[in-house]
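pasting for ref
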Amino acid sequence: MTLDEAWEQRGTIWAEIVELQDDEGRPIHNEVLDALLRLYRLRRELLVSNRAVQLGLIQPDAIQLELVQGDSGPEEDEKPPFETTTLWDYPKQSYGKKPKGNNKFQGVTPAFIIWNMLQRYTQPGDLVVDPMAGSGTTIDVCEEEGRRCIGYDINPQHPKVIKNDSRHIPLEDSSADMVFIDSPYGDNVNYSDDPENIGKVSAEDPRFYEELEKVARELHRILKPGKVLGWLIGDQWVKRKFTPVGFKVYEMLTKYFVPIDIVCVVRRNQSSNTGVWLYRAQKFNFFLRGFKYLLIVRKPPEESTETKKPQKVKSRQVGIKPRSIGVKWQRYK
């Protein structure tokens, strides 16, 4: 079967997306394949190599031919688009020839989110902190953009990520120029076997938000006044019950930060984006999660602790006693 034939039958055949990579983990790009990859996920039970992919329905030779005739892949200086709206959508987890994070890590952060946050809210040399750095996407993007970065995680998946609980960050007060966090939004993903892992607590349990608030207080402490925090979070739908995790986290953040905006980030390459789940969502009448919230907030500037003393009014005319000056308030209709 050719690619064209497979495309014509995509409604019944293309149930999932396959992430094509070479031996070094770099994505293999092709215009035809990219069009397919943006719609579905192909089963990962396949052989991925530099020139051949066995899909079962498509002959490896056909894939090889398309890859050879296609473009040579992304340029070294490829950058994501600078987002100007509150709807962010990018078809790949990473960009450029150097991977950012590990796209095989469940819950990996899309690199373009970090890139856009850096462009808007930091300068070269600034210190960025990610308390739940996972596979190190934030670290990789910061290094390429000339920002200093410290990444922590309770279960590090990157050599430069430091093992640490995000509720106790070993940094001085007001030391970070920006903080980014991609936190769990329930116990739907097993990030770690560590008993202290917040991702082991259900989003239906009030304790989940209590633990996230401990994290928020730490982020407020280490962030410089006037600087920005980006918090990526998603909602939950489990066993016919919807939990608005994003709204709850946003409400909690407003206790400590000033809201800037909320961005909807389209979710791609998720495990539920398969033919089976699409069928279930239609048959049992529920919605698959299609986006995450990027909550952007700012730490308030420090307020002056000096109290102003009332000034005495001196009369400049001889023989006139000083009198108090009162302000008359009048209600306007």
